[in-house]
Every structure is written in structure tokens, then in C-alpha cells.
Design brief:
Elements: H1 14-17, E1 22-30, E2 33-40, H2 42-58, H3 64-94, H4 107-139, E3 142-145, H5 152-166, E4 173-175, E5 190-196, E6 206-211, E7 219-222, E8 230-234, H6 235-242, E9 251-262, H7 276-287, E10 292-298, H8 303-313, E11 320-323, H9 362-368, E12 371-375, H10 381-392, E13 396-403, H11 411-421, E14 425-430, H12 438-450, E15 454-456, E16 463-464, E17 467-475, E18 478-486, E19 498-505, H13 508-522, E20 534-536, H14 540-556, E21 562-567, H15 573-585, E22 588-593, E23 610-615, E24 620-621, E25 625-628, E26 636-640, H16 646-650, E27 652-658, H17 662-678, E28 683-686, E29 692-694, H18 706-718
Parallel strand pairs: 3-8, 10-11, 13-14, 14-15, 16-27, 19-24, 21-22, 22-23
Antiparallel strand pairs: 1-2, 4-6, 5-6, 5-9, 7-8, 9-10, 12-19, 13-17, 17-18, 18-19, 20-27, 21-25, 23-28, 25-26, 26-27, 28-29
Helix pairs in contact: 2-3, 2-4, 3-4, 5-6, 10-11, 14-15
């Protein structure tokens, strides 16, 4: 393993000031006396992750349009945070729940702290747009204009655009005794307009709302195709400028864009739902009417109108954010379509040189060796080829496949349909409740059923989150199984954006477990047994605790003990407590946790042997991999779909698979873990006070990016001999 860089002093940045308050649980007794076990708050830890994403937007080393993309991602992340997490806390408060979370914070206090952190994050987000990105884009010939900045020609074009493209689909909704407050859709753009009659000042001021249909583009290219700088204006600016045309005879006193975020969690009792698919469809329609949990509105709105909105939405001001810029910066994502390669990351082509690069020989190769791919550095094509080849191979008798999230035009789904049409037995475990992909998955489920595929939805009360594809092939007198197990979804599109691992094998002990898993999910099995796979909710949690305990016992006995774990989130209290115990026994623990981490590292007497880092860069770190030294035997190495969270251990179907092949194990031990632990460019270290700080390095030491290293390595491997 590479040595950790020595610490050097540096000036504090805004990132250092973002700390996550922690609470305490019952004391733990150590040789030095009782020590209070501390935990970071889950929600505030997630906000700290979003702060790290914002850092990428602020990072001038990133290409300009990539910085814009990171800023848009911050907005998207906050949307989901309010729709699910904040909505859940509000429900707890309204239901009178006062029970504290593991960190010691009750729901109301969590909401108070969330508001404080989010307010700071949003302020920095819009400062980044107004003071950094927008001026930098202007220097590159990409101009963003507000209404008052339009010249005569631009004004003429914008008014023409409004009259031909916008006005025909707008419907003004008056707010008065005869017109009740409208039902505003979740995250839809709206403009609230204040009007009066110039010749009748005694008449009370009137208010109307203009809901903007989703079909209209939110970012409008002014005079597209014209020479010179590219000019853009937000649709909300156009509507505010031209709103008077919708109210002839009235004077516009003010117009402000806003949007409402609503509770978007699904409420489904699967045991009571006779038809899960139809129940989810109905719930998706109900989501548009979910309770409001956030109001975003432009600065400058009159107090009276502001109060009207809050009153009708039943929102207190702590859930209202007055923005000094355009509503919904996620719309900036469309800028990445601009043909400016000089403002983007250099293009990268994944290496397609694995033993599975020839689709016709996939099964021949897998009889000879296991294969491990590291996406997006290795091409995702072999994963698709595995299913497509199985669909057309006349010796393949059956295909069993899990589908959690997939792409809009999924080649995996097409291959399963083709396989069914070719007379093969095809079973698809479709997770209808994959958050925000429910509608897509309903569509795939129906298409698969229409093609004769057996579509099932897994165990009641558990999401099927594991990534497994099993092929049964007749080879002479033998029925041989082949399996793909992954850490990411069967989605070729996100496979170019997420880092994940794909494992292919024909080992009997693993393929038999995979077959047992599918039988358990499609049939009846109260307590299935697995020889090699760690499967939630059956064996995973218990087995992880046993592995941690073994390292603890080895350290206590004076033997070498080491744990390396890479995951998206670490929340489970039992696991954290056992890691604390391992640290106190002397186990050296390095955790690479991209997002939420409730464990507090570096606390004397509690976690001084635990180090936590997060990597946020060009690609979304999504792989999960785990190493346990196991001194008296071979080191144990696993990868799979599960984070260390209660939902993954107990409320989802998850799979961790062992890596047994010596070559693949060696790559994980000499490449994946050491390289990510050596990153000093995109990595941030978590400190005991909750702050994430850049990895400290000597001033003379070069910067090192793990993701850049893996891209360079893949490019080198792909070169012709």
C-alpha cells in the first residue's frame, strides 16, 4: 500500500467551515475508561457530500462546461434530498415523533440544522453561478442575458419567440374568491404576477399564476445560428418580460418565477396491494399532489404575495429559499450539448480488450477463467454481449436477470425479449420501486410480459437491488451455468459515468448460489442458504459483523489485522460500533466512502485507527469492494451491490460475491485500493469535527488523481501490441 502523505499546514477554505454536528450514544468501556460513541448525522453528512460536489463546480482546474454540470448536479441532489429525506422528517414532526436518530438529534432539531446548512449551500451555489461561471462563460463567448440586458434586435426576437412558442400554451390562473389556488405540480416552473388597474387605484391588487408546461425548454438560445457569441436566456425571464400580453388592460407590478418541491416518496402496502404494478401507477399519479416541502422563489417578491404563497402551500418560512438567480439550475445541464470540446473533459474511450471482447467466444472464455471489469475504464459491452449472446445461442436454455435501473432504450431488455421469442425460458426480476425510475420500470415490465417473459417483483417488503444475470447452457450431457454479478445497474448509459465492477464466472459454487438466489426470489424460501455469496436480508449483515470481529480478535491476539472497504454510504450503527471496537483493538481500517458516513474517525480511544476519505471527480464512484486480512487464512475479498446501511442489510435483496481468482485478487490489492488511497487531487479526508478537507501533501509533491490513473491505464491496455 502506498504511504499516506504527510500533513502540511494550509489556509482554511469554505469547505473546512462546513462541519456536521454529531450526537452521542451510550459510553463504551475501554482500558482507558469509558468513551462516548459518536455518530455523524445522516442527513447532514449527505449535505456535506453535496458540498464536495459543489467544490468541483468551484474548481478552476475542471473544464468550464464540466463545472456547469457539477453545479447542475448539486441542484438535482438537493431536489431529491427535499423530496425524500426532508419530507420524511417533516412527516415525523407532524406526527409527533420526538425519538432521536442515532446521533442524538430529534427530527425537529435535524430540520433546523438542515435549513442552516442548506441556506449556506444554496447561497454558495448561486454565488458560484453569478460570480464565477457566468462571467467565465461570457469570456468564452457564451452569454446569459436577463430581460433588461437585451438589445433591440434581441428584444424583438424574444418577443416573437414568446408569441409563437410560449403564449399559445400558457394558461393564466387568477387568484381570487372565484378561482381557488391551483394544484401546482412537483418541481414545475411557475410565474406569479401582481397586477393592478392604472385608472382605478382604489381596486385591490390582483394576483395570477402562470404554470409553465414541462414541454417548453427552460433555456432558450437567442437567434440560434447567428454569428458571434452564443446568447441564452431563461424561459422565466421571457415570460416575466412578456407577461403583460396575457393581461390586456392591466399593469404588471411584478412577476417572479418560483417552483414547489413536494413529498415524492411512495406509500405502498405490498401485502394489501393485489396488483403491485397498478398500485404503483396510481401512487405515481398521487405524487403530483404530495405535500409541499420547499418553495424556491426569486428575490424581490412583495411580502404580501410571498405570504399568500406560503399560506396556500402550508409552508413555514424555514422551507422557503429566496434565490438570487434563475430557478432550478439543473436546467444548465443542457449547456453540455454545446459543441465546445475545449470546455469539456477530453474524450475517453473505454478499453474493450478483455478476454470477453469477442462475443462469440464469451462462454468458451468463461469456462477457462474468471473476468473482472472496471467500468467505465473497461467497456460495458461485454455485459450487454453476455445477455445478447445468450439470447441467440441455441444451446442456452434459460436466462434469469435482475433489473433495477436501465436505460431508455435498453439493449438488455431487448435481448431478454428476443430470448423469449427464441423459445428460451426467461425470467426477469423487475424492481418497480426503484426511486424515480418507477414509470420506466413499469413500461419495461409490460413489454417483457407481452413477449412471454416471466416477470416477478421479488420479496414482499424488499427492493431487489442486487445485480445478477444467470445463463443456463446445455453443453453435451451437462447443464452449465454462467453468471454475471455487478456493483452497478444494467444500464449502458450510466456505465459511462459511474465507476463499477463487473464479475463473470462459471465457478460451480458461485453459479449454484446464484441459481438458489433466483429460486428464492421467484418461489418460496424462508431461510435460503448460500455457500459463497453474502445475500441480504439473509446472511449479509451477520457475515459482515463476523468478518469485522475476526479482524478484531486477530488484532487483540497480536496478529496483523486490516480492513479496507469502499462503498457509497456507511450508516448502520451495529457495523459502526463493531468498527470502533476493531479500531480500539488495533485493526488498521481505511474506508473510502463517497457519500454519507455516520462513523467519526480519528477519535482517541474510539476510532484513532480508522481513516475515512471520499473521492468526487469526473465519474461517480459507485463500486463497492471489501478486504479483510484474515491472517490465519487467505485474505477475504468481496464486491457487490450493498452499502453498509440498514436498508441494504435488511430491506433490500443485495449480493456480495467473493473474488477467488488470484490474478483478479492481485489487481484489487495492488491497483484498486492502493491507487484510490493515494489520490490527493479529488480525495477529501473526513476529520473528527465533521469537516472534509483536501488530502494534505508536500508542496513539492505532484497531484495524483485515481480516476486519471485508471483512464491512462485503460488507454495503454487498449493500444495495439
Amino acid at each position: 500500500m502506498p504511504k499516506r502523505p504527510r500533513r502540511t499546514s494550509r489556509r482554511k477554505t469554505a469547505a473546512d467551515r462546513v462541519t456536521i454536528p454529531s450526537g452521542t450514544a451510550s459510553p463504551i468501556t475501554t482500558a482507558a475508561g469509558p468513551v462516548k460513541a459518536a455518530y455523524f448525522n445522516r442527513e447532514l453528512s449527505w449535505l456535506a457530500f453535496n458540498r464536495r460536489v459543489l467544490e468541483q463546480a468551484l474548481n478552476e482546474r475542471n473544464p468550464l462546461l464540466e463545472r456547469v454540470k457539477f453545479l447542475a448536479i448539486v441542484c438535482s441532489n438537493l431536489d431529491e434530498f427535499f423530496e425524500i429525506r426532508v419530507a420524511g422528517l417533516i412527516q415525523q414532526v407532524e406526527s409527533g415523533v420526538t425519538e432521536s436518530s442515532v446521533d442524538g438529534l430529534p427530527p425537529r432539531e435535524q430540520l433546523r440544522r438542515i435549513h442552516s446548512v442548506v441556506a449556506s449551500l444554496v447561497e454558495d451555489q448561486y454565488h458560484c453561478w453569478q460570480k464565477q461561471l457566468k462571467p467565465a462563460l461570457r469570456e468564452e463567448g457564451i452569454h446569459f442575458k436577463v430581460a433588461k440586458e437585451l438589445n433591440e434586435d434581441e428584444l424583438l426576437w424574444v418577443r416573437g419567440y414568446f408569441q409563437t412558442q410560449v403564449q399559445p400554451v400558457l394558461t393564466p390562473l387568477a387568484l381570487d374568491q372565484a378561482h381557488p389556488f391551483p394544484q401546482l405540480g412537483n418541481k414545475t416552473l411557475n410565474v406569479i404576477v401582481s397586477l393592478d388597474l392604472p385608472d382605478q387605484p382604489e381596486i385591490e391588487r390582483m394576483v395570477a399564476i402562470l404554470p409553465v408546461p414541462r414541454i417548453l425548454p427552460r433555456l432558450v438560445h437567442i437567434v440560434p445560428g447567428a454569428e458571434g457569441p452564443q446568447r441564452f436566456i431563461f424561459l422565466s425571464e421571457i415570460i416575466k418580460l412578456c407577461a403583460g400580453e396575457l393581461f390586456p388592460g392591466y399593469r404588471i407590478r411584478g412577476a417572479h418565477a418560483f417552483r414547489v418541491t413536494r413529498n415524492s416518496d411512495l406509500y405502498i402496502d405490498e401485502e394489501e396491494a393485489e396488483n403491485l404494478l397498478k398500485t404503483i401507477e396510481e401512487e405515481l399519479r398521487n405524487l403530483r399532489r404530495g405535500a409541499a416541502v420547499r418553495l424556491e422563489i426569486e428575490e424581490g417578491v412583495e411580502d404580501e404575495i410571498f405570504a399568500t404563497l406560503c399560506d396556500h402551500l402550508n409552508l413555514s418560512q424555514e422551507y422557503v429559499f429566496r434565490l438570487s438567480g434563475p430557478i432550478n439550475l439543473l436546467r444548465l445541464m443542457s449547456l453540455t450539448d454545446i459543441d465546445r470540446p475545449d470546455l469539456k473533459f477530453p474524450p475517453f474511450t473505454p478499453a474493450d480488450c478483455s478476454p470477453l471482447s469477442d462475443p462469440e467466444r464469451i462462454f468458451d472464455q468463461l469456462r477457462e477463467q474468471d473476468v473482472l471489469l472496471h467500468h467505465p475504464y473497461d467497456s460495458f459491452a461485454p455485459v450487454v454481449d453476455f445477455v445478447e449472446q445468450a439470447a441467440r445461442d441455441p444451446r442456452v436454455c434459460a436466462i434469469k436477470q435482475t433489473l433495477y435501473r436501465t436505460s431508455g432504450d435498453s439493449p438488455i431488455v431487448r435481448a431478454l425479449i428476443d430470448a423469449s421469442k427464441n423459445g428460451k425460458q426467461v425470467t426477469a426480476l423487475v424492481e418497480l420501486k426503484a426511486r424515480f425510475d418507477e414509470a420506466n420500470n413499469i413500461q419495461w415490465a409490460r413489454q417483457l410480459e407481452d413477449a412471454g417473459v416471466h416477470v416477478v417483483y421479488g420479496l414482499v417488503g424488499h427492493k431487489t437491488h442486487c445485480k445478477v444475470s444467470l445463463v443456463v447452457r446445455r453443453e453435451g450431457a451437462v447443464m452449465r451455468r454462467y453468471v454475471h454479478l455487478g456493483t452497478g445497474n444494467y444500464n449502458p448509459r450510466t456505465a459511462k459515468l459511474y465507476t463499477d465492477l463487473s464479475y463473470f464466472t462459471a465457478r460451480d459454487e458461485i453459479t449454484e448460489d446464484a441459481a438458489n438466489l433466483f429460486n428464492s426470489l421467484t418461489g418460496f424460501s424462508r431461510s435460503p442458504e448460500f455457500a459463497q455469496l453474502l445475500v441480504a436480508p439473509f446472511t449479509l449483515h451477520r457475515r459482515i459483523q463476523m468478518l469485522i470481529q475476526r479482524e478484531t480478535d486477530n488484532a487483540a491476539a497480536g496478529k496483523p489485522a486490516r480492513i479496507l472497504a469502499k462503498m457509497n454510504s456507511l450508516v448502520d450503527k451495529t457495523t459502526i460500533d463493531n468498527l470502533y471496537a476493531a479500531s480500539r483493538a488495533g485493526v488498521q481500517i481505511d474506508l473510502i466512502v463517497r457519500g454519507i458516513c455516520c462513523l467519526v474517525p480519528g477519535v482517541p480511544g474510539l476510532s484513532e485507527n480508522i481513516r475515512v476519505r471520499s473521492i468526487v471527480g469526473r465519474y461517480l464512484e459507485h463500486a463497492r469492494a471489501f478486504y479483510f486480512e484474515n491472517h490465519d487464512g487467505e485474505p477475504l475479498i468481496y464486491a457487490g451491490s450493498a452499502d453498509w446501511m440498514p436498508r441494504n442489510f435488511f430491506r433490500r435483496i443485495e449480493v456480495l460475491f467473493p473474488i477467488a481468482d488470484p490474478t483478479l485478487r492481485n489487481w484489487l490489492l495492488t491497483e484498486l485500493f492502493p491507487i484510490e488511497l493515494a489520490d490527493n487531487e479529488n480525495a477529501r479526508e473526513l476529520h473528527a469535527n465533521g469537516a472534509y478537507a483536501p488530502v494534505r501533501r508536500e508542496a513539492t509533491s505532484p497531484t495524483f488523481s485515481a480516476q486519471n490513473y485508471f483512464m491512462a491505464s485503460a488507454t495503454e491496455r487498449a493500444r495495439p501490441n
